[in-house]
Specification:
Glycerol uptake facilitator protein; about 0% strand; transport; transmembrane; Aquaporin_transptr; MIP_CS; MIP
């Protein structure tokens, strides 16, 4: 299959890009705080992070419960979703949530992605900090049952 090659126009320069980059976003844009699209993005990121964490963690907990031989009397190797099922749960949830939130908030479920876009000046400061801060409360708080238990010597 041959590569399409464009000929340079008569007397003109050959351009390799068929698009033009948008201007850099301002670092601080207070006008954006008055737009409904910012608050829709905050809500979308909150719900996406909430769903991602609770569904994937529930998959891991379900696998652990189903494969425990003391709780489940059937063959532990054949019960539960397995490690591959956990990987599919994580990958599938990221795929679905990014697809669903891409039109609303850009699909930046990971705050590191949003921070990288801020450093590249593709998003402004309010647009980068508000969704990142909204995804923090949707994560589960640390509980005593989630902390590692170490045996103590008496």
């Amino acid at each position: 299959m041959a590569k399409d090659i464009e000929a340079a126009p008569q007397g003109g320069e050959f351009s390799t890009k068929d698009y033009s980059d948008p201007p850099p976003a301002p670092i601080v844009d207070f006008e954006e705080l008055t737009k409904w699209s910012l608050y829709r993005a905050v809500i979308a990121e909150f719900v996406a992070t909430l769903l991602f964490l609770y569904i994937t963690v529930a998959t891991v907990i379900g696998y652990k419960h189903q494969s425990d031989p003391t709780v489940n009397t059937t063959d532990a190797a054949c019960s539960g979703v397995g490690i591959l099922g956990i990987a599919w749960a994580f990958g599938g949830m990221i795929f679905v949530l990014v697809y669903c939130t891409a039109g609303v908030s850009g699909g930046h479920i990971n705050p590191a992605v949003t921070f990288g876009l801020f450093l590249a000046r593709k998003v402004s400061r309010p647009r980068s900090s508000a969704p990142s801060c909204s995804s923090t409360p949707s994560s589960p708080p640390p509980t005593p049952s989630a902390t590692p238990v170490t045996p103590t010597s008496r």
